[in-house]
Here is the input.
Amino acid sequence: MTWDGDAAPGWARRLEGAESFDLIRAAGAAAGIRDHYVLFGLLIAPSFILIGVPLLRASQAVGRSTAVLAWSTLLGAPASLMSYGGVGLGDPWDLFWGAEIPLLLAVCVCGAVAGVLAYRRHRVPVWWAALLAATPVVIVAGTAVFSYFPHGSLVGYGVEVAALAVGVRSATVSTGEPASSHGVAGSR
Here is the structure.
């Protein structure tokens, strides 16, 4: 992993020598990526996909505002690839550095709006809508707990979306109908 050298969180410095990270660094070097900051930055792109796809699936049961949140999240994959992939390439690529910052701000706004709309439309129980509406809090908390942006932000967001996805899935499995017909994993 590559953090901010001495400013890195203690837990991150302890993981620095882990064999799995040595393997990732070796694979990056074999692919011609020797800058570890760039390598581990590029590797957040799959996180956006792994978070966005379950949200997109949930949006089928919950509604369009959740679909907007899912697509905003999925845009994080190319944004992070441009952001980190452009490091050191000069203009115009340097302009993309930090592209995931405004994107995650948009995700925060979309999450809050989607949660409120899902609740107001009575498509989900209170806990589900509240958790979705708390997306900004979850992302900020993930950043604070793990002391790194955007990696830490995505850890919190990923856990949130996992809970939301399980809620939608359990409602669909138990009723045999989409969550929009009977609510998500329980009722009000």
Observations:
- Confidence is low (pLDDT under 50) at residues 172-176, 180-188.
- The radius of gyration is 18 Å.
- The first helix runs from residue 10 to 15.
- The chain has eleven helices and no strands.
